[in-house]
Amino acid sequence: MKSFWGLIPKYLVKNKKRNFFVAVGIMLSISLIVSLSIMIKNLKESSYKQMIDDFGGVYDNFFFTEDKKSLNKLVKDPLVDKVSISCKLGEYKVPNSKYVLRVNGYDDNIGEFLNFKLLEGKYPKKDNEIAIEAWALSAMHKKYKVGDKIKLNLTVGRFKKFNIEKEFTISGIFDYKFNTNQLKNTAIAYVPRSYVESISPPKEILHEGHLYEGYLNVNSEESIEKSCNSLAFNDDYKNIEFRINTAKTFLLKAYKGIDFISVILYIIISIVASVIIYNIFNMSITERTRDFGMLRAIGASPSKIKILVLGEGFILGCIFIPLGIIIGNFTIQGITKLIAGYKDVGGIMNIPKSGIIASFIVGFFSIILGSYFPAKKASKISPMEAINSNNNLKLKGKKIKSNLQDNSIISKKFGFASNMARLNLNRNKKKFITTVISLSISIIMFMVVTYLINSSDPIKNIKSKMGGDFVVSTPADKPDYALSHEDIEYIENIKGVDKTDKEKMSYVSMEVPKDTVTKEGIKFFSKESNRNSKTQEDFKNQRYKFRTEVKGLTEEELEKIKEHVIKGKINERELQEKPMVILAQNLNYSNCTKLNIGDHIELSCHVYDNEKDRTERKSETFTIAAILKEDYMPEDSQIKNVVIVSEKAFEKYFKIKGYQKVKITLGKDANYEEVEKKLKNKYRSNRGVNLTSYKEEVEEAKKNDLKFSLIMYSFVGVVAIVSIINLVNIMSMNVLLRKREIGMMRAIGLGKDEVKKMIRAEGIFYGISSAFWGGITGTIFTYIVFLISRKSLTDGMTWSFPIGTIVLVILVTVGVCILASINASRRVFSSSIIDSIRIQE
User: Fold this and answer.
1) What average pLDDT does the structure give for the chain?
2) Mind listing the pLDDT tens digit for each residue in 566-585?
3) What pLDDT is attached to residue 781?
4) What is the pLDDT of residue 590?
5) Residues 798 and 713 grouped into a single domain
6) Do residues 317 and 170 both lie within one domain?
7) Exposure pattern of 477-505 as b/e (b: 16+ CB <10 Å)?
8) Does 153 map to a domain?
9) pLDDT greater than 90 at residue 191
10) Do residue 68 and residue 114 come from a single domain?
11) Of the residues 220, 244, 268, which one is the last residue of a structural domain?
12) Which DSSP helix (H) or strand (E) runs through 103?
C-alpha cells in the first residue's frame, strides 16, 4: 500500500457482503426517487394535455367585448403577456343535418391558445382563404379537399339575421379537440380577422358592430388569478367581460400540492435510506474496531479515520447512485409502457432532470448522514481500547439488575429467554427505535396506498354514476340537442332493453336567503366574488348564488329517491302543481348552507325562443318540500347543491323540452353488442349525443386502476424491501456483537433452543412494536388523507376503521421479523462455544 488512502478500496473489496447491502439500499432508494420523479412528470404532462383536450386550449383568460378602444388598451397592458383576438363572420347550416359551421376571424397566433392541430394544407393568410374542421367537411354532401372552392350561405348579425353568400378557397383542414364543448354539433371555420373586419355588413345591422372574443396569457411574474382579477377590476376595461380559465388555475394549484407531496416522499426516502446506511456502517465500524485501533497506533489521526469511513461511503455513492438512476428509470418506464401497451421504446432514457438532481442530493445526503456518526465513532477509538476490545457493549451491573427487575413479569410469563431478549433491546435502544421507525414508515405508506386504491374503486363509482348498461346523454342547456320522445321510443323498442330511466337536466343559478348561509359558505362566496365585478357586487349586497344542478324526474324516479329523504316528504302531485323542489345540499363534503323545509330559494336561468336561442333570464321562487341525504351524487363533482323537480315542472319553469339523459338497463338474455351497435348507428351522425357503454368504461377504469395500483404498490414495496434489509442487518449485528456473550451463556448451560427462542423473541418484539406504532400512525394518516382529499380525489369518498388492513399488517410484520431473527440466529451456531468465547472481532 503506497498511500493511506489506498485503504479505502482495500476495505471496500474486503467487506463485499457489507458493501452489497449498502449498494442494495442505495440503489433501491435511488430507484424509488427516479421512479417517483418519472411518475410525477408523467402525471403532470398527461393531466396538462388532458386539460387542454377537455377545455380546448391553454389560455389563462377568455374575454369578449364590443369596445374596440378598450381592447386596444388591453393588448398593450403590462400584465398581458400575449393575446389573440377573434370576431364572428357568420354561420352556415350544413344541409340535411344538425350541423352548423361557425366562421370566425382569428389572429395568426390563435394556435398558441386554442387546441388546433393542422392536418392538411395551411392556415389562411389571404382574404377568401378558409380552414375548416375535418369532421365538418366530412359531413357535407360534397367531398372537399385543400385547394377547392366552397360557397357558404352565411347567416350574419347578432340581433337581426341576414344571409350573405361568400366563396372561399380551402387552404387547410384542422382538428379542434374540445371534449367539454357544449356545442358538439357546431364546427369551426378559420378565416383571417382582418378579412372579417374589412367586410361591409348589410346596412340594417351597421349599428351592431363586431363582438370581439379573445384569449390571453398573463405575465409569468404574476399569478394567473391575481393578474386576471387586476384586469377584471380595472376601470379601463369595464366594458370587457373576463372569464378566468379555472381548469388551468386548478391544475397549477394541484401541481403545487403534488410537488409538496413529492418533497415529503423524498424526505421519507432519505430517512429510510439514512437509517439502513447508518446501521450497516455502524455494524462495519464495530466489526473493524481492532483495525481502526491499529491504524491509530501507527499514527493515523482521528480526522483521517473519519475521512476513511466517509470516503468508503462516497465511492459507493459514486458507483451505485448512477446505477440506481438507470435501474429505476428502466423499471418504471418499462412498467408504464407495458401497461399502456406501447411497443415503441423510444424515449425510455428520457429521465427528468429533477429526478437526477434529487437522486444525487438524497443519495449523498443519506450516505453522509448514515456514515458520519459511525465515522465519528471510529475516529474516537483509542489504540489500547481497540486492541483489547471484544466488541461487546458495556453494561453496568446496576443497569442490568434494573432491567431484570423491570422485566420480572415477562420472565414469569414467558421465561428467561424472553426476558433476556427484552434486556438486549433495552441495551440497544437507538437501533431498536430506528428499526421500528423504518418498518413503521413502510406500514404507514402501505396503509395509505391501500386506502387510496380502495377509495378510488373504479367499478363501484362507475356503477353508481351510470345506473345502467348504457347512458345516452346530451349537453345541458342545449334544447336543440335534447332527446325527443321519438328518441326514447326508438331506444325502448330495441330488442333486449329491459327499462329506461329518463332525466331532464340543466344548470341554474340558485340564490339562497342570507340567514341560511354558514360561515364556511361566507368564505366560499368571498373567494368566488373575485371572479368579476358582478360577483363582487353580489357579495357586497349579500346576495348568495350557487351554480346548481337541476333535474326533472319522472314519477318512477321520484319514487326511487324517497329512501334518501331525511326531512320532509315527496308528494308527486304537489311537485307538479306548485313551485316546490327537493333539495340535496352541502354535497361533496361542503358545508355552505343550512336550508330547511319551507325555506324559499330563487332559481334563475336563460329561457329559449322557438329558434332555440337564448333570450332573457327568467327567475322563479320555489319552496323546499324535502331534503335529501348529503351522499347524493351530482353530475359535476364541484357542485354543492342539486335541485329536483318533477319533469312537468321542469318544462313549465325552465322551458326546456326533451331529455338530457337516458339510462338503459338490459334484460338477462339481451345481446349487449347488438344493442350497442344499434345505438351507435342511431347517433353516429349526431355529435351532440354521447353514448356511454358500461363495459367500455369498466375496461378503461380497470386499465387505469391497474397502472395506479402497480405504481403505488411498487413504491411501497421498495420502501418495505429497504426496511427489511435494515431489519436483517440489525438482527445480524445484534447477534454479532453478542456472539462472545451468547457463547458464555451456552457454556454455562443455556440450550440451543433457548438461544434461538431468545433471538426469536427479539424479532417478535420488533414486529409487535413496529405493527403497533405503524398501525396507529397509519390509521391516523388515512383519516387525514380522507379529510384532505374527500372534496377532490374521488366522488363519494368514505372512511372506516381499517381493521382488516391492520390485522394483515400485524401478521406480515411479525412474520418478517421472526424470519429475520431466524436468519440471524444461524450465525450464533456457525462456530463452536470455545471459538465464540475466544472471538475478538
Assistant:
1) 79
2) 999 998 888 888 899 999 99
3) 87
4) 83
5) yes
6) no
7) bbbebbbeeebbeebeebebbeebbbbbb
8) yes
9) yes
10) yes
11) 244
12) strand 100-106
* Amino acid occupying residue 692: T
Cα distance from N-terminal residue to C-terminal residue, the chain: 23
Q: How far apart are CA 516 and CA 545, in angstroms?
A: 12
Largest interatomic CA distance in the chain: 117
Out of 663, 688, 713, a domain closes at 688
Q: Are residues 51 and 146 in the same domain?
A: no
Burial class (CB in 10 A: 0-12, 13-18, 19+), 107: middle
pLDDT higher at 389 or 281: 281
**One domain for residues 631 and 536:** yes
Higher pLDDT, 35 or 15: 35
> How many domains in the chain?
4
CB 477 within 8 A of CB 723: no
pLDDT 10s digits, 753-781: 777 777 788 888 888 888 899 899 989 98
The whole-number pLDDT of residue 599 equals: 94
**CA–CA gap between residue 549 and residue 509 (Å, rounded):** 9
CB 184 within 8 A of CB 139: no
Rounded Cα distance, 630 and 564, in Å? 9
Which pLDDT band, with edges at 50, 70 and 90, does 325 fall under?
confident
Task: For residue 620, give the nearest of 649, 592, 657, 640 by alpha carbon.
Answer: 649
Q: Does residue 45 sit in the same domain as residue 65?
A: no
Given a contact cutoff of 8 angstroms between Cβ atoms, the answer to whether 205 and 119 are in contact is no
Q: Is residue 252 part of a domain?
A: no
Residue written as grid cell 454455562: 748
How many whole angstroms separate alpha carbon 658 and alpha carbon 397?
90
Average pLDDT over residues 527-547: 83
306 contacts 285 by C-beta, under 8 angstroms = no
C-alpha dist (Å) from residue 656 to 546, 550, 606, 614, 647:
21, 12, 10, 11, 10
Look at residues 383, 439, 496 and name the one whose alpha carbon lies nearest to residue 716. 439
Chain center to CA of 31: 21
Q: Is residue 396 part of a domain?
A: no
pLDDT of residue 150: 93
Q: Are residues 496 and 645 in the same domain?
A: yes
Based on the number of CB atoms within 10 Å of its own CB, is 631 exposed (0-12), middle (13-18) or buried (19 or more)?
exposed
Give the model confidence (pLDDT) of 89-146 as tens digits: 889 998 888 888 999 999 999 999 999 999 999 999 998 899 999 999 888 888 899 9
Do 121 and 173 form a contact (C-beta atoms < 8 A)? Answer: yes
Q: Are residues 162 and 196 in the same domain?
A: yes
| pLDDT for the residue 841 | 41
Q: From the CB of residue 23, how many other CB atoms can be counted at a distance below 10 Å? A: 17
Q: How far is CA 358 from CA 43, 320, 565, in A?
A: 18, 15, 53
User: What sections of 428-540 are H helices per DSSP?
Assistant: 429-455, 458-466, 485-492, 519-528, 533-540
CA gap 351, 360 in Å, rounded: 13
Q: How far is CA 559 from CA 499, 555, 570, 571, 663, in A?
A: 16, 6, 8, 9, 16
Is residue 730 very low, low, confident or very high in pLDDT (cuts 50, 70, 90)? low
| Distance from chain centroid for Cα 357 | 23
Backbone φ/ψ region at 756: left (φ over 0), alpha (ψ -120 to 50), beta: alpha
392 has pLDDT over 50: no
787-796 pLDDT per residue, tens: 776 655 555 5
CA dist., res. 639 & res. 21, Å (int): 53
Which tens digit of pLDDT belongs to each residue from 502-531? 888 888 899 999 999 999 999 888 888 876
Question: Cell 383568460 sits at which residue?
Answer: 61
State whether residue 604 is helix, strand or coil.
Answer: strand
Q: What's the average model confidence in pLDDT over 558-565?
A: 87
Show the domain range for 156: 60-244
Indicate the pTM of the whole model: 0.70
Please name the residue that has the C-alpha cell 443455556: 750
18 part of a folded domain: yes
Q: How far apart are CA 670 and CA 720, in angstroms?
A: 48
Which residues is 608 bridged to in the sheet?
614
